[in-house]
Design a protein that fits this description.
Elements: E1 3-5, E2 12-14, E3 16-19, H1 28-40, E4 45-47, H2 58-67, H3 71-75, E5 78-83, E6 85-86, E7 91-92, H4 96-110, E8 115-120, H5 129-141, E9 145-151, H6 155-164, E10 169-175, H7 182-188, H8 205-211, E11 215-219, H9 238-251, H10 255-264, E12 271-274, H11 279-286, H12 295-304
Parallel strand pairs: 3-4, 3-12, 4-5, 5-8, 8-9, 9-10, 10-11, 11-12
Antiparallel strand pairs: 1-2, 6-7
Helix pairs in contact: 1-2, 1-11, 2-4, 4-5, 5-6, 9-10, 9-12, 10-11
The structure holds NADP nicotinamide-adenine-dinucleotide phosphate.
Length: 310
């Protein structure tokens, strides 16, 4: 497993991490096997959110109840969680009160004294950057949160926060898979009037993050689109799957590792956030941490996923 020092922190992190959004209905034994498989593969970084699960902090609680981590086990892993989505609305809430309440709820649910990284989950149109700064300062001073980041944020939204927030923004978690890659694809086709791909949907977020040492974390790395099923093995993507299968044979890894490698091969040093609850798939995806796809192979996957290389 390839690891690196997460810029803005002292954490050594893997480039493939495990998201726990889908564990609510899993038994203790299933959660333990999933996490142990991840740990054995070098995945020491776990992604949560207050809203994952069937009730508030549901998946955080499920994880903690199943794992019963000792303090030394806790220290060996990175726990990241998120705040800012109010599901019953639905609406977004980056107020001081909401951020503090959410973090206290996550600490209790996870049974830990500290969160390694807290992300603001989705941009709040009513954000008051000074309130976010007050919440972050308090959480940082009390030791409850060690580092901060965002998710689904544009450069302008991050700049607005940075005007008030003194802690570094260390991560931006964004949807990215080879079939859902506007972050990457727009720049390849910039200024092409006849191509939809040329339309900027995110104001240059990927380049901005690279320029500012903000690590991009790719969520839904195998979903074709927005939670509409995976592209792996899908009859909707025959050419892409043929290329993936050929590369899997070449590198002697499962297909899921090649799909992972399409993201880890990108020089932005992104982290792939897996969402599978299947231990074999976790172990297979982890093998994609360091597959050295050539430039030609990377672009072949991009093209057969439906993107244009003008
Ligand atoms: N920041 C955000 O806004 C945001 C949004 C969504 C997700 N996330 C994070 O990103 C993580 C990953 O998201 P995701 O679960 O949508 O991503 P994903 O890894 O692309 O999708 C996993 C889902 O696809 C299913 N699946 C079916 N066939 C599969 C195959 N051949 N290979 C792999 N998976 C297959 C899995 O089922 P099995 O479990 O049966 O394998 C699971 O339900 C989440 O856990 C969460 O931590 C963040």
């Amino acid at each position: 497993m390839k690891t690196f020092t997460l810029p803005g922190t002292e954490l050594t992190v893997p480039n493939v991490v495990l998201g726990l959004m889908r564990i609510q209905e899993k038994t203790d034994e299933e959660v333990r096997t999933l996490v142990k498989t991840a740990r054995d593969a070098g995945i020491s970084f776990f992604d949560h959110a207050d809203v994952y699960g069937s009730g508030p902090h549901g998946c955080e609680k499920r994880f903690a109840e199943a794992m019963q981590l000792t303090s030394s086990e806790r220290e060996q892993i990175v726990l990241q969680t998120k705040a800012g989505i109010v599901r019953e609305g639905p609406y977004f809430d980056f107020s001081y009160e909401h951020i503090i309440e959410s973090v206290n709820g996550s600490l209790a649910a996870l049974g830990t004294d500290y969160i390694d990284i807290l992300l603001l989950h989705r941009p709040d149109a009513l954000v008051e950057p000074d309130e976010v700064a007050r919440a972050f300062d308090e959480l940082s001073a009390s030791g409850k949160v060690r580092s901060f980041g965002v998710s689904n944020h544009t450069p302008g939204q991050i700049e607005l926060l940075r005007k008030s927030v003194s802690q570094p923004v260390v991560a931006n978690q964004l949807q990215l898979s080879v079939t859902h890659a506007p972050l990457v694809a727009q720049g390849v086709a910039a200024n092409m009037q006849a191509l939809d791909q040329s339309i900027s949907r995110d104001s240059g977020t990927l380049d901005y993050c690279r320029l500012n040492d903000i690590t991009v974390q790719a969520w839904s790395p195998f979903q074709a689109g927005f939670f509409n099923g995976v592209f792996l093995g899908s009859p909707d993507y025959p050419e892409l799957n043929a290329v993936i299968d050929r590369l899997a044979a070449k590198y002697d890894v499962p297909a899921i590792a090649v799909a992972t490698a399409w993201i880890t091969r990108h020089p932005a040093q992104m982290q792939v956030v897996l969402g599978t609850t299947n231990p074999d798939r976790v172990a297979g995806a982890a093998l994609g941490s360091d597959v050295p796809l050539t430039r030609a192979e990377w672009y072949e996957m991009f093209r057969t996923a439906g993107y244009t290389v003008p």
